[in-house]
Task: inverse folding
């Protein structure tokens, strides 16, 4: 199996970082926390409860795309990135054509509870509604794996690993 390149995507509170970190460890590839690449201006906007625009997200997506494009042929990477719109996902795919997406989704109340329980994260629960409104669920032609966050993180990781084995055997 070639080294996997995956974006773990979804709205805030879906478990992108938790699942992404565990998956990267299981696959033996690096993990990139997409939120760490947000410029300070974006972090300040979100911390103040202001939704990001496409223009706000452009440099952030470019930074992630740059990391993907810089990978060697045999290097894998798991990235947590909301990738809310198809145009964002298309930009990331352009940087790494073999990139795969895993869309984590769940009930609004579960997402909101998770956000409220987080410690030390700048994203307030008030932005969840705007993220859900912005989200363009991956269409069938995007071949994204869609998983419900009602499952425990370790089970989600197992589903992703199984999916990778089926598609790269």
Result:
């Amino acid at each position: 199996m070639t080294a996997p390149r995956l974006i773990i995507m979804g709205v805030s509170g879906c478990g992108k970082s938790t699942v992404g970190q565990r998956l990267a460890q299981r696959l033996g590839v690096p993990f990139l926390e997409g939120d760490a690449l947000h410029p300070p201006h974006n972090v300040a906007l979100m911390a103040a409860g202001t939704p990001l625009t496409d223009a706000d997200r452009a440099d952030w997506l470019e930074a992630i795309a740059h990391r993907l494009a810089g990978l060697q042929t045999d290097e894998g990477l798991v990235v947590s990135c909301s990738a809310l719109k198809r145009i964002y996902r298309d930009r990331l795919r352009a940087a790494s054509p073999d990139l795969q997406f895993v869309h984590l989704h769940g009930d609004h109340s579960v997402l909101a509870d998770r956000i409220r329980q987080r410690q030390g994260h700048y994203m307030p629960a008030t932005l969840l509604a705007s993220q859900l409104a912005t989200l363009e669920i991956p269409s069938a032609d995007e071949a994204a794996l869609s998983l419900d966050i009602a499952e425990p993180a370790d089970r989600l990781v197992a589903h992703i690993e199984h999916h990778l084995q089926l598609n790269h055997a």
